[in-house]
Structures are given as structure tokens and as C-alpha cells.
Design goal:
The chain is mainly α and 328 residues long. Helix content is 58%, strand content 4%. The protein is built from 15 helices and 3 strands.
Length: 328
């Protein structure tokens, strides 16, 4: 006799599909959102281990929205996007007869508006961090593993700053994706699309130094070089294996560099994504505010996203302001 799936089973299956089709960050956020949803319906006397997914109700959405008021509007928006996607899955694959139009309408009416925030641009602090990691690569070390970590950390942070890659995109890079003669790589980016990413001379040089230092380990891995990750782990747990650096390890790289350069108070204020903001704004400043160029290089789907950075690159406005208010 086959046991019918429960709501909890459906949630687990849905999250496994997200894990296989979306980025690590998206999977993490959706997991948090759906787990919160299961907590909410459980508090309203829904037994998630016995209730079949076909019993999913639009009323549950109202409970969920009410429970998210303690979160920031941006987090609420992400969680509700995940919930609507889950309901679409329940309808398409679990036979739930819930009215999806009603679900979407409830979410649209009840969620708070997200006020766009200007992206941070601590240019001098970012450049201090870049200088620090450059010097770190030549600092004294106790063993070869520490030396590899220093070379990797420099290459990783320079890659974030000079390519605009998101942290998960950088972590997924393999040796076979990077064309060192053309200074380019074809990478899978947000949304499952492929795009060409260009590397600066300094980021590519740092990558070459790091990979050359890793040559013996990579050659002994028994795997094709093209399949090996660009950024690998060099901790005790990795041993002599060539294991891909994950996003958690990548965040630790940035946190260490930030703390060493700016002090612990800088952690959380400057994140891996801050380097993407730095990249877009540097492009805009250098190109005289060419939004189309910045959009293409940043791989933004909509130019409106790039537009958010334009205020940060308008040197004429800066100069005009200081001429008016800061005359000596």
C-alpha cells in the first residue's frame, strides 16, 4: 500500500527541486521561507505530517503574511515570492486545487512596499581592502597551505571587484571556463543564463599565480584540469583533495579581509556583494555614465537596476556641489 505524501513531504520535494535548479543563495532563502510557512500553519492546528498537499488553502497565505510583519519589507518580499512559487508547485505537481489567482492577489494586496535603497559605495574602504589582499599574498606564512589561502584570497577578492561576479557565480567557476588568452570566461549567471565575463589584467594575473602554486595538487587529483574549481578549499578538512570553495567559505574570506583592514565593525557593512556595487559604479564613472555599457558588463536584465548606481557616478554633480558649498 502506497502512503500518500504529506504537506511536509511536498515541501521537502519542492526544496530539493529548488536546490537542483537555483543558486545556493536562492535555495537557502527559499528553505527559510518554506520552513517559516510550515511553522505558521502548524501554529494554526494544521498537521503538516498528515495533511495532504491537496488540502492547501489560500487562507494559509493570510496567516503567513501576518507572521512576516516582524521582518524587513525586503525579506518579506523574498519570502512571499518563495511561497507563491511553492503554491504553484502544489497546484502543478501535487494536485492542489487552490486558486492561484486568489493567492497572488492576496500577496499583492497585503505585502508592504519595498523602498529602494541606494547601493553602498565605500570606494576608499574597498580600495584599502584590495591593497591589503595584494600585500597579503607576499606576507610570511607558516606552511604551504597558508600560502595558498593568501594567494586564493587575493585572487578571489580581485575577481569580485573587477568582474562584478556574484559570490555564487565566482565559486562555481572552473578552470575550463576561463580563457586566459582572451581574458574572458563564459559563466552561468543568475536566472540560469550564460554570459561572457571579462577579467582585468590584475585579477587574471592573481588567478595565474594562485593556480600555478596549486599545480602539483591539481595534477595529482586524478581529474581533468578543466573540471577543477578555480577557487578551492585549503583547510584541514579538504586535505589533498581539490574541493570547490562554497559561498560560506567565500564570505569568510571577505570577512577576514574586512576585519583586518577596517576592524570588526566593518564586517556586515562590507559584504561580497559590496564589491559588485563597486564594480558597477567604477564602470559608470570611467565611462561617463554609460548606462548601457554598465548594464551589459554587470549582466543586469533591466537597465532600471543599473540606474540605481547612476547617482554615485555623476562627477559633475559632485564638483558642482563642492564649488557651491565648499568655497574657501
Amino acid at each position: 500500500m502506497t502512503t500518500s505524501p504529506s504537506l511536509a513531504d511536498a515541501a521537502n520535494h519542492y526544496l530539493s527541486l529548488v536546490a537542483n535548479s537555483r543558486s545556493e543563495n536562492t535555495h537557502r532563502t527559499y528553505t527559510q521561507a518554506i520552513n517559516r510557512f510550515l511553522e505558521v500553519v502548524t501554529k494554526h492546528k494544521v498537521n503538516i505530517e498528515q495533511t495532504p498537499p491537496t488540502d492547501a488553502s489560500a487562507d494559509w497565505v493570510g496567516w503567513y503574511v501576518a507572521s512576516l510583519k516582524q521582518y524587513a519589507p525586503a525579506t518579506e518580499s523574498l519570502y512571499l515570492t518563495a511561497l507563491v512559487s511553492f503554491y504553484e508547485y502544489l497546484s502543478a505537481e501535487q494536485g492542489a486545487t487552490v486558486n492561484l489567482d486568489q493567492v497572488r492577489s492576496m500577496v499583492k494586496r497585503r505585502q508592504r512596499k519595498v523602498t529602494p535603497r541606494l547601493p553602498p559605495f565605500p570606494r576608499e574602504e574597498i580600495e584599502d581592502i584590495l591593497k591589503y589582499v595584494d600585500e597579503l599574498a607576499n606576507s610570511p606564512v607558516e606552511d604551504e597551505r597558508e600560502h595558498l589561502r593568501h594567494l586564493r584570497d587575493r585572487a578571489f577578492i580581485l575577481t569580485l571587484a573587477d568582474t562584478g561576479l556574484r559570490i555564487a557565480e565566482a565559486c562555481r567557476l572552473t578552470r575550463g571556463q576561463v580563457d586566459f588568452s582572451e581574458n574572458k570566461a563564459i559563466v552561468a549567471i543568475k536566472g540560469g543564463r550564460e554570459s561572457v565575463v571579462r577579467f582585468s589584467k590584475r585579477s587574471l594575473s592573481a588567478l595565474k599565480v594562485y593556480l600555478n602554486a596549486r599545480g602539483e595538487t591539481d595534477g595529482a587529483s586524478g581529474r581533468a584540469l578543466a573540471s577543477l574549481p578555480i577557487f578551492a578549499r585549503h583547510d584541514d578538512g579538504a586535505g589533498k583533495k581539490v574541493l570547490r570553495l562554497n559561498t560560506m567559505g567565500a564570505r569568510e574570506i571577505v570577512d577576514r579581509a574586512v576585519a583586518a583592514t577596517l576592524g570588526v565593525e566593518g564586517k556586515g557593512r562590507i559584504t561580497p556583494h559590496t564589491f559588485r556595487h563597486y564594480f558597477v559604479t567604477v564602470v559608470l564613472r570611467a565611462s561617463g555614465g554609460n548606462l548601457k555599457l554598465a548594464q551589459e558588463l554587470a549582466r543586469h536584465k533591466n537597465v532600471s537596476t543599473t540606474q540605481r548606481y547612476a547617482h554615485l557616478s555623476d562627477d559633475d554633480l559632485d564638483e558642482g556641489y563642492h564649488e557651491i558649498f565648499n568655497k574657501t
